[in-house]
Amino acid sequence: MNRTAQDFPRQSQWSSTSKVEAEVQRRKQLIHQSVERRAIISKCYKPKHPEVYTLQDSFLAPEFLEIVRFCTSPGADLQGLLSYLESFSDKRIYRLPVFTEEFCQAFVDELENFEQSDMPKGRPNTMNNYGVLLNELGMDEPFLTPLRERLLPVTALLYPELGGACLDSHKAFVVKYSLHEDLDLSSHYDNAEVTLNVSLGKEFTEGNLYFGDFNQDPSPVPRYIEVEHVGGRGLLHRGGQIHGALPIASGQRWNLIVWMRSSAIRNRLCPMCHRKPQLVEAEGFGDGFTEPLQEEEPQTVDVCALG
Ligand SMILES: O=C(O)CCC(=O)C(=O)O
Ligand SMILES: [Fe+2]
């Protein structure tokens, strides 16, 4: 299995410089492999639906556009925004319409076409074995950055202390669950300040998401809630909210996951190991950290993310 970065926390702690050095080398190799895949895909892959690679307003649910309009209007506040969203318990998890059904169908059809091609494929993260890394398909600039930027007025009101107004990079992928592949996803938290998770279809039963505590605020007996998927709708949650996915019982489930990052927040403290990050150079957005003097362009990964 190809791996990308180490996205989920591990138990072990760094004990020696040589382990750090080995991790730096491993990271560099992963980055190099991903750059090579991206180059091959951009040269050789023929999209079935080339239009889905560039975000257009017509892909977005009219209610989504209305919510963004509200958030950018004078006097918009959290109270007003909440009247447009579904809220789940007191965990600051919210659901909102994001995409039209037609867009979801065309997007999944495109991703299936890619899956069936003989192109090289990285995998979304260390826990999902199936799905597509959208930066390798070239979707970061024309689709995901504009989508993240459209969301900023919303996340600014919902998650101000997590840098919701300045989520300046992301890692985006689509996860796929089906009966003979991955069925479920174990409990984890994301390498993100804020996560967007949009249900794209197809037909499936079960497979609800579940959410427990915020990792920085654990309780002695965590309370879990389950949240169903609704086609075209997205959940916004804090990346540090412990969560996972229950097994599907039939069909196929595809979801778009956007891990949104704020360099201003994570440069101070790595969200995975809660220590000051130790950085190595990366391609593209890396893991969303920046060197102090180059804050406009998130471009580094944190080797600690493993600790
Ligand atoms: O299966 C899902 O919809 C959630 C995926 C997820 O939490 C993740 O990839 O970080
Ligand atoms: Fe997650």
TrEMBL record:
Q: Select a single GO molecular function from the record's annotations and give it.
A: L-ascorbic acid binding
Q: What is the lineage of its organism?
A: Eukaryota, Metazoa, Chordata, Craniata, Vertebrata
Cofactor(s) of this protein: L-ascorbate
Q: Which gene encodes it?
A: OGFOD2
- Name the keywords, alphabetized: Dioxygenase, Iron, Metal-binding, Oxidoreductase, Vitamin C
* Domain of life the protein comes from: Eukaryota
Where does the record place the Fe2OG dioxygenase domain?
168-262
Official protein name in the record: 2-oxoglutarate and iron dependent oxygenase domain containing 2
Recorded hits in Gene3D superfamilies, A to Z, give: q2cbj1_9rhob like domain
Source organism of the structure:
Ficedula albicollis (Collared flycatcher)
